[in-house]
Amino acid sequence: MSTLPRRLAVATAAATVVSCLPIAAAAAQHPDPAHRLHAAQATAAADKKRLAQAQHQVAAAQDRLTALAATAQQAVDRYTAAMKELRQAQAAAAVAHAALAAATALVNTQQQQVNGFVRAAYMSGGPLTTVASVLSAAGPAAVLDRASLLGAVSHSQSDQLAQLVRARRVQSSAAAVAADAAAKVQRGAARADSARRTALMAMANQHALVATLTNKQDGLAKTLSAHESKVADLAAEAQAMARMRAEIAATQAALMASWARLEAIGEAMPLATPAQGRQVVKWAKRQLGLPYSWAGGDVRGPTLGTVNEEGNPAGLHTVGFDCSGLTLFAWAHAGFSLDHYTGYQWLEGHHIALEHLRPGDLVFFAHNTANPMTIHHVGIYVGHGRMIDAPHTGAQVRYDDVFVPGLIGAVRP
Question: What whole-number distance in Å separates Cα of residue 138 and Cα of residue 303?
Answer without folding.
Answer: 56
